[in-house]
Task: structure prediction
Amino acid sequence: MRLSARVTALLLLSLTLLGGCVSTPKSRPFNAAAHADLKQIEVLPMQPTELDVLMVNNPGHSFGLIGALVAESHLATRRSWLRERVEAKQFDHVETFRSAFAEAMEREGYALSWPNGNVEAGKPKVARNMWGIRKSYPGPSEPAAQALLDVNFGFVRLASAGSSDGAPYRPTVILTARLMDASGKTELFQEVITHNNVFPNTGDTVQVSPDPTHAYPDFDALKAAGTAPVDGLEQAFRRVAERLAQLLSRA
Result:
């Protein structure tokens, strides 16, 4: 009997973030005055991500392999439930983010392009760090591009910080964003944005407060809410997109 790759990844992620064993990417605010002429931005394909349901600090993980397997069996049921709700709403978290972000950036005076698609196709080949940030950058695919935007979801779930009454399930998103010049050599901006921070040791991130409407004390409450939790996820991705555009504002 052994842990699946999914369980192993979740355990490693939780232990790493909860233990403070990883440094948050260093914040570099955007210097709007220095880049007043920046307009055309090419957005690079994201790493693939899948929506999930997770209890961080799950008590089952304290009981070794058997506990982790029991916790995973519960998660599998909850994952299936979420998949059904997402399909019923025809919800695409990446497309939702892209649409909201493009609209918000247009209001800021930018023109975005995704010449290579939203998400990296096929088996991922791009070397990234644990936050999803690329270790090197290609030249732009479009000659007009003045900068490259590396944006990724590191965590996309209906998540609870634990089993206590004060840790409800909420839409949870961790996004990393890094803007490079067209050569891919000079960093112009870098931030981590967190919507509902369930990992208190992630360091200094830009916080987006969750809507209290979409807080569910336990999984039974999630199920009873029908597709409302998916509405909450949609709102979360839109809020994160709009916050990222604000951080790149030249107003």
About this structure: Confidence is low (pLDDT under 50) at residues 1-12, 57-72.
